[in-house]
Amino acid sequence: MSNTLNTNPTDESQLASGDPPQLSHDTQMTATVEALAQAVAADAIHPKAQVIMPSEEQLTVRLVKLDDVLRLQETASDENLVAGAFMALVGALLGIFINLVTSDITSISKATWVAIAANVFFLIALGSFWRRLHNRYNEELKRLNQGDTHD
Predict the structure, then answer these.
(1) Which of 7, 112, 126, 150 could form a Cys-Cys staple with 86, CB 3.0–4.6 A?
(2) 2 lies in which domain range?
(3) 75 and 138 Cβ atoms separated by less than 8 Å
């Protein structure tokens, strides 16, 4: 048995039996693709979606300096980095508390208290830094939207 398709539109067994000749697989696929292309083209001629143009004011484009955009992107990147570290510390503190609750420890060791205190200290510091970065990002974005730039 060969791996090639029969490209002849008629098969000898069909001719011998008297049945009408059948199209080969390639010819049927070509006809199907052409019918599909015609259906898509017919839909493209008569679009069904309503197109609404925005007002001229909404189409206004404001040009800003590349340095200002890069500064905004850098601030957003710094904010995301601090937010990730903050969330990691929240997870570490939550892990310590879950470990304390699920274990049979009757008293908490000094090392555990030190770990909790260090996590709380760094959470407060990172939370403050995260808030400052978030405020800086919002101020820079507001300034860019108003058209003010650093010279």
Answers:
(1) 126
(2) 1-52
(3) no
Half-sphere exposure of 37 (CA within 13 A, CB side): 6
71 and 120 housed in the same domain: yes
Q: Rounded CA gap, 74 and 80, in Å? A: 10
> What is the DSSP code (8-state) at residue 28?
H
Residue 151 lies in a domain: no
Question: Could you tell me if 48 and 72 lie in one domain?
Answer: no
| DSSP calls for 79-134 | HHHHHHHHHHHHHHHHHHHHHHHHS--SS--HHHHHHHHHHHHHHHHHHHHHHHHH
Instruction: For 36-93, write each residue's pLDDT tens digit.
Output: 888 777 766 666 678 788 888 888 888 889 999 999 999 999 999 999 999 999 999 9
Inside any domain, residue 101: yes
Q: Are residues 97 and 135 in the same domain?
A: yes
The structural domain count of the chain equals: 2
Q: Are residues 5 and 44 in the same domain?
A: yes
**pTM for the model:** 0.56
pLDDT tens-place string over residues 7-33: 454 555 555 555 555 556 677 778 888
User: Could you report the per-residue pLDDT of 83-117, keeping only the tens digit for each?
Assistant: 999 999 999 999 999 988 898 878 888 998 999 99
